[in-house]
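Methods: holo model generation. Sequences were used as deposited, without trimming of termini or removal of tags, and paired with ligand SMILES retrieved from the corresponding compound records. Each pair was processed once, and we did not select among multiple samples. The sequence and pyridoxal-5'-phosphate SMILES for this entry were:
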Amino acid sequence: MSESAALRDRLEHVRETVASAALAAGRRPEDVTLVAVSKTHGAEAVLTVLGAGQLVFGENRVQEAAGKFPGLRPKHPDLSLHLIGPLQTNKVREALAVADVIETLDRPRLADALAAALGRGDTLPQLLVQVNVGEEPQKAGIAPADADGFIQDCQARFGDRLTGLMCIPPAEGDPARHFAWLADRAARHGLAVVSMGMSGDYATAIRHGATHVRVGTAIFGSRPALAAAT
Ligand SMILES: *Cc1c(COP(=O)(O)O)cnc(C)c1O
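and the model returned the structure below.
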């Protein structure tokens, strides 16, 4: 089987898993958006997946996203790009130019930088607050104890541009309680988007209310070890 046929097969399998997990949870499959995480993978793989009707992508790095996606937009105006990696404040400008959604609003300084961009007249993409649900020192995200205050602050500053919450639970242990916590927190704040679940746990995330799952490896295959850690 060619690599592109294998890719289409894996995409189809992930789509079926998303749909069956949604149905099993009494939810509609169309209420769960699959974000295809294409980081480290080249334009050819992205084109194959686009050709199979996948329009929503995730990238970790602004520069990589800027190299891959703007050229595809004329032909695919419905394409949507989510930034899912840590965003440095000095990259905000570039991020606004390339992203439809920034999933990693993870600290007050970044909120300040986004507010400054808004003040300059820039249009903001959709924003998700990233919560460090496992309180892991190596991970980005607002601490769970500070989440309510930060979310309210962001709602006051960004209004309906703030659409939801995102998390990356600890790699070890059962992610279910973290997923349930995030979905509950989003509901309390009237936020519609809950981005959680990756290749290893997206079905679990859907059972707990994910509206967006971010799946890389299960679609595109494995990444080089170094890049995978970022
Ligand atoms: C890389 C990455 C993913 C995708 O991970 P897979 O395990 O390859 O599906 C999802 N979310 C974030 C934030 C990532 O950095």
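The chain has a mean pLDDT of 96.
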